[in-house]
Amino acid sequence: MNNRTRIVNDPSDLVPLLHVFKSDTHKKVFSSLIAGWKTQIELEELLNEDINGSLDMLKKTGLVESKWRMPDPGQTPQIEYHSSYARLRADFQCSISDVCDLIRIAISDDEMLRDIADAMEVEVKNGNSSVQNLSRTLKQSPTFLRGIAKRSENLVVKGHRFELTKR
Predict the structure, then answer these.
(1) Are residues 64 and 139 in the same domain?
(2) Rounded to an integer, what distance in angstroms lies between the CA atom of residue 83 and that of residue 66?
(3) What is the rounded average pLDDT of the residues 81-95?
(4) pLDDT of residue 167
(5) Does residue 100 share a domain with residue 46?
(6) pLDDT tens-digit profile of 108-150?
(7) What is the residue range of 151's domain?
(8) Do 95 and 142 form a contact (C-beta atoms < 8 A)?
(9) What is the pTM for the complete model shown?
(10) Total tally of structural domains belonging to the chain
(11) What is the DSSP string of 17-85?
């Protein structure tokens, strides 16, 4: 069992964690990986469902690590997965309003959030990538925009700037 602790210093880092664990499948996959190293095939057999999307989400949030499993002679190597962390420690201070926004971002499928994420992507493509500048342009708090970026598949937060993913 892994005994590492994930330390969260930025409140927006809660968004991907809350978003991932609102899914029962993601939670089951993560719980299975706490117990030990397993391949995708072993997980699918154990849980009786397709877990490819779950592994992708858990990898993106940094909750799962992987390595190559040495195969028996003549067989193909496979990637096996394990949970990166078993505990969480939050060390930040923010307003209740910001926490409410971050929880809403994490658990909502609201179209307004999609519109803001799209507007952020357009601004970043046009060179406006500073958190503070984007906050003024879109009239949203920096914490709110960081939360949107943490949930987005197309945006990443790099210090005080947003960048587009390299897909």
Answers:
(1) no
(2) 9
(3) 92
(4) 61
(5) no
(6) 887 888 999 999 999 999 999 999 999 999 999 999 999 999 9
(7) 96-164
(8) no
(9) 0.79
(10) 2
(11) HHHHTTSHHHHHHHHHHHHS-EEHHHHHHHHTS--HHHHHHHHHTT-EEEEEEPPPTTS--EEEEEES-
